[in-house]
C-alpha cells in the first residue's frame, strides 16, 4: 500500500484539533472539493479527532496520528491513536466533545473503526470526489510520536494550502498579529514550493512547535546543500539585499547525522 500524501503527528489535545482540521481542509481545497464537501470533511475529521482527545488516553498525554491519501476516486483519511479504544457515546457523567458515529456516517461516503481495547484505534473515513482527480504519487516514512506537530507532504500545489492553513491556525493560537501571520505564511510558501529532490523521501518534512508568542520551525532532513538552496530562493530579485529571511527572528542551516535542517523562529 502506498504511503499517504499528508501525514500529521501531534499531541492529542483539544487545541490541536483545529490544526488537523485546517490541514485536511487545505488538502481538500487543493484537490478541488466543493466548499460544502470541504465543510463536511472538516466536521467529520473534527469529530474523529475529538473522540481521540476525549476518550483515548483517559486524561493522560498521548499521540494523535492523521493521514490523508487521495486516490483516483476518493480521499481516504485515517485518524489513529495508541490509547484505550474508540467509544462512540460518552457516559452520562462524562464531559465530551463527541457527537457520535451517526454524524460521521451521514457526512462521509463510508467509514470503518478498527482496533481492540488497550491497543489503540484507527478510524478510516472515505470521501468520494465529485469530479475525478488525478492520483498523487507519494512516498514517506513512519514517524515517532512527537512533542510538536510533524507534517509530511509533497512539495508544490498540494503543500501550499495545507501548510498555510496549519501555520495560520498555530499563529492564531500564538496570538500573532495579522501582519506577522502574513509574514509566517510567506515563509511557509518559500519552503513548501521547494524542489522535492532536496528531500530524501520526496516529501517536505516539517516540525513546528508553538510557544509563548513564537513558532519554532524545523524543515528536514534534506540532502547536502538543500538548506542553502532554500535560503537562496528567499533572496528577492534586484540585488538590493532584500530577503524573506528578515521576516524570521532567526534562521540557520543545521547539520545532523541524517542530513541538513533549516531551522527558523517566527515571533509576534
Put the structure in a nutshell:
This protein is α+β, with helices and mostly antiparallel strands and 268 residues long. It contains six helices and ten strands, in the order βααββαβββααββαββ.
Walk me through the structure:
By secondary structure, the chain is α+β, with helices and mostly antiparallel strands. The protein folds into 2 domains: 1-136, Histidine kinase-like ATPase, C-terminal domain (Heat Shock Protein 90), CATH 3.30.565.10; 148-268, Histidine kinase-like ATPase, C-terminal domain (Heat Shock Protein 90), CATH 3.30.565.10. 30% of the residues lie in helices and 27% in strands. The protein is built from 6 helices and 10 strands. It has helices at 17-30, 35-56, 101-107, 159-173, 178-192, 226-233, and strands at 6-11, 63-70, 74-81, 111-115, 121-128, 149-153, 204-210, 214-222, 250-256, 259-267. Helix 1 packs antiparallel against helix 4 and helix 4 (159-173) packs antiparallel against helix 5. Mean pLDDT is 77; it is low at 88-99 and 131-146.
Q: Into how many domains do the coordinates divide? A: 2
The SSE order reads EHHEEHEEEHHEEHEE
Strand order of the largest sheet: 4-5-3-2-1-6-7-8-10-9
**Under the CATH scheme, which class of the largest domain?**
Alpha Beta
Largest sheet composition: 10 strands, antiparallel
Helix content: 25-40%
Which architecture of the largest domain does the CATH hierarchy give at level 2?
Answer: 2-Layer Sandwich
Beta-strand percent range = 25-35%
Could you say which structural class the secondary elements and strand pairing correspond to? alpha+beta
List unreliable stretches of 5+ residues.
88-99, 131-146
Radius of gyration: 19 Å
CATH topology category name of the largest domain? Heat Shock Protein 90
**What is the terminal-to-terminal distance?**
42 Å
Number of strands: 10
- The overall average pLDDT, rounded, is 77
Amino acid at each position: 500500500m502506498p504511503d499517504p500524501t499528508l501525514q500529521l503527528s501531534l499531541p492529542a489535545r483539544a487545541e490541536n484539533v483545529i490544526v488537523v482540521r485546517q490541514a485536511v481542509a487545505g488538502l481538500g481545497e487543493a484537490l478541488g472539493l466543493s466548499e460544502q464537501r470541504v465543510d463536511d470533511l472538516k466536521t467529520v475529521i473534527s469529530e474523529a479527532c475529538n473522540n481521540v482527545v476525549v476518550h483515548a488516553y483517559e486524561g493522560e498525554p498521548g499521540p494523535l496520528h492523521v493521514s490523508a491519501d487521495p486516490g483516483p476516486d476518493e480521499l481516504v483519511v485515517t485518524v489513529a491513536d495508541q490509547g484505550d479504544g474508540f467509544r462512540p457515546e460518552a457516559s452520562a457523567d462524562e464531559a465530551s466533545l463527541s457527537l457520535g458515529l451517526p454524524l460521521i456516517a451521514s457526512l462521509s461516503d463510508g467509514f470503518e473503526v478498527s482496533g481492540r481495547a488497550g491497543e489503540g484505534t484507527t478510524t478510516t473515513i472515505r470521501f468520494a470526489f465529485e469530479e475525478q482527480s488525478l492520483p498523487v504519487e507519494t512516498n514517506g516514512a513512519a514517524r515517532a510520536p512527537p512533542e510538536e506537530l510533524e507534517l509530511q507532504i509533497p512539495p508544490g500545489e498540494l503543500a501550499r494550502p495545507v501548510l498555510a492553513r496549519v501555520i495560520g491556525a498555530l499563529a492564531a493560537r500564538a496570538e500573532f498579529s495579522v501582519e506577522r501571520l502574513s509574514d509566517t505564511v510567506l515563509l511557509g510558501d518559500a519552503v513548501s514550493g521547494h524542489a522535492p529532490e532536496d528531500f530524501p523521501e520526496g516529501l517536505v518534512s516539517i516540525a513546528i512547535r508553538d510557544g509563548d508568542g513564537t513558532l519554532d520551525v524545523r524543515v528536514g532532513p534534506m540532502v547536502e546543500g538543500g538548506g542553502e538552496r532554500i535560503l537562496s530562493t528567499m533572496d528577492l530579485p534586484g540585488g538590493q539585499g532584500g530577503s524573506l529571511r528578515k521576516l524570521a527572528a532567526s534562521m540557520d542551516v543545521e547539520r545532523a547525522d541524517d542530513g541538513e535542517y533549516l531551522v527558523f523562529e517566527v515571533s509576534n
